[in-house]
Amino acid sequence: MLKKAVIVCDGVLPETGEISGELSGNVLFIAADGGGNRAREMGLTPDVIIGDMDSFIRAENETARIILDPDQETNDLEKALQFAACQQCLQIVVFGATGKRTDHTLKNLSVLRRFDPQFHSLLFKDRYSEISLIRSPFRAEFPLSTSLSLFPLSGEVTGITTQGLKYPLSGETLKNGVRDGTSNETCLKQVDIEYESGDLLLIVNLRQT
After folding, report:
1. Which of 53, 78, 81 is nearest to 67 (CA)?
2. In whole angstroms, how large is the CA radius of gyration of the chain?
């Protein structure tokens, strides 16, 4: 079984039960700086809290390992992912990397692109969606009529062909500022996506509001 890490950031988080549900088994639980405050509010105790500590408020009875990393060339999520990689974790679920400040969200999507090749899987989850970079060929099963979007994360993605979507693509290109794949939906339970080049972001919408 692949070693798993769960990282909590200080963005928009889902309900406590969704996070705790990812913590069963042999899981390394990391909070990225202010994510440590959010974890405490939810009654969750990380194994490690890492960051430059400009947001985290340490409790008197704190039991988590605290790692101060003052490097300003990396953000707190990068520090947490680097730590997970050093611990040989290959399956990563990140909660709260999106939402709140737009610049932080965009930065963390850039971090997703940088770190994705280092792991077997790297998934961002918040209250409304699941976000991942998909590798070609991609195949997954979803409930019928699941809302999802395809975005070119950097530049353009070429040669995209899909099966199982209401609005299919056939050898087509998505390009930033020109064309994207917002608000598609599944028409079959199994979805197949292939592409030739680029970084293709899959956003699966969990709820509408």
Report:
1. 53
2. 18
Question: CA separation (Å) from 22 to 16, 19, 27, 142, 160?
Answer: 10, 5, 8, 19, 32
% helix, strand, coil for the chain, step of 5:
20, 35, 45
175 contact partners, CB below 8 Å, separation of at least 6: 152, 155, 156, 157
pTM: 0.92
The DSSP letter of residue 197 is B
Residue bearing tokens 């850039």 = 110
Residue 59, token pair as written in the block: 């409790």
- pLDDT tens, position by position, 123-166: 999 999 999 999 999 999 999 999 999 999 988 999 999 999 99
In order of their start, the domains of the chain are 4-127 (3.40.50.10240), 134-205 (2.60.120.320)
DSSP states along 94-156: EESSSSS-HHHHHHHHHHHHHHGGGSSEEEEE-SSEEEEEE-SSEEEE--TT-EEEEEESSSE
Per DSSP bridges, beta strands 172-175 and 200-205 are: unpaired
